[in-house]
Amino acid sequence: MAEIRTVTTLRRKREEIRAVIAAYEERLSQAKADLAHISAAITVFEGTGEGAAHRPYVDIHRVFKYGELIAIAKQGLAEHGPMNTREIALYILKSKGLDANDKVLAKAVSYKIIHALRQRQRRGLLVDAGKWKNVRVWALPGEPSLLPLCASHS
After folding, report:
1. CA 52, 54, 59 angle in degrees (round to 5)?
2. Domain extents for the chain?
3. 46, 51, 138, 150: most buried, per Cβ within 10 A?
4. Residue 93: exposed, middle, or buried by beta-carbon count in 10 A (0-12, 13-18, 19+)?
5. 3-class SS at 95?
6. Pairing between β-strand 135-139 and β-strand 83-84 as defined by DSSP bridges
7. pLDDT of res. 7
8. Predicted TM-score of the model (pTM)
9. pLDDT digit of tens for each residue in the chain (154 aa)?
10. What is the Rg, in whole angstroms, of the alpha carbon atoms belonging to the chain?
11. Cβ–Cβ < 8 Å for 85, 135
């Protein structure tokens, strides 16, 4: 039995419309990608140095002034006594008004501060009090016996 001409025409029209919709969806996807790139560029150029403007992928070297990390770390050690590297990093984030719950940012600050702390320790400006639960504990020189105090860091 032969197909009705109307059905054949409707099927052809349906395929045309599907092709047009697919083309529009592709253009829409490209437009969304373009919008995302423009928004990301705006975010990068609007960086003001304030905490709320930072994302975890932002280069933290530009967040802190020269020597600011170690100055904040020493301030934290002076206020709170011996602290481990993670606690120092969290203290720095809170002092700068950054998100202390952002684990990626906290880890980046921890890695950045470790070298500075070790350099100060070699010069005798900080004391390496050993490790407590696999995290290095730091203190200012002249602190009393340190490891018993570290039990509060558990």
Report:
1. 160
2. 1-46, 53-153
3. 138
4. buried
5. helix
6. antiparallel
7. 92
8. 0.54
9. 567 899 999 999 999 999 999 999 999 989 888 888 888 788 777 765 554 545 545 567 677 788 888 888 888 888 888 888 888 888 988 888 887 787 777 888 888 888 888 888 888 787 777 676 767 777 777 765 444 444 444 4
10. 28
11. yes
Alpha-carbon distance of 5 to 22, in angstroms, equals 26
Structure tokens at 82: 């011996």
Residue 97 Rama label (left phi>0; alpha psi -120 to 50; beta): left
User: Which of these CATH numbers, 3.40.50.300, 1.10.10.10, 3.40.50.1000, 3.30.70.20, describes 53-153?
Assistant: 1.10.10.10
- The three-class DSSP label of residue 136 is strand
Burial class (CB in 10 A: 0-12, 13-18, 19+), 113: buried
Where do we find the tokens 């039990």? 151
Phi first, then psi: what are they for 7, rounded to 5°?
-65, -45
What six digits make up the tokens of 42?
């705006």
Three-state DSSP at 31 gives helix
